[in-house]
From TrEMBL:
This is Sec-independent protein translocase protein TatA. NCBIfam families: tatAE. The chain crosses the membrane at residues 6-28. Belongs to the TatA/E family. One of its GO terms (biological process) is protein transport by the Tat complex. Signal peptide: none annotated. Part of the twin-arginine translocation (Tat) system that transports large folded proteins containing a characteristic twin-arginine motif in their signal peptide across membranes. TatA could form the protein-conducting channel of the Tat system. GO terms for molecular function: protein transmembrane transporter activity. It is a single-pass membrane protein. It is found in: Cell membrane. It holds the Pfam family TatA_B_E. It comes from Rhabdobacter roseus. Forms a complex with TatC. GO terms for cellular component: TAT protein transport complex.
Length: 68
């Protein structure tokens, strides 16, 4: 549901979302879509973990500079 709300925020209506989904279905096929979504999910998780690591490093360096 969150994905649809993001697309709606970007100015895409129901008809545009339907056409994009149809294009993806025709281009990749029904068997590849779960594999693509799994890869997309893993990529998003890796991105979240990387941003969390960067944030933690910045906070740690801020704590180190204030404690000295």
């Amino acid at each position: 549901m969150e994905f649809v709300s993001i697309l709606a925020f970007m100015g895409l209506g129901g008809q545009e979302i339907f056409l994009i989904a149809l294009f993806i279905l025709l281009f990749f096929g029904a068997k590849k879509i779960p594999e693509l979504m799994r890869g997309l999910g893993q990529g998003i998780n890796e991105f979240k973990n990387a941003t969390k690591d960067v944030k933690d490093n910045i906070e740690k360096s801020m704590e180190d500079t204030t404690s000295k």
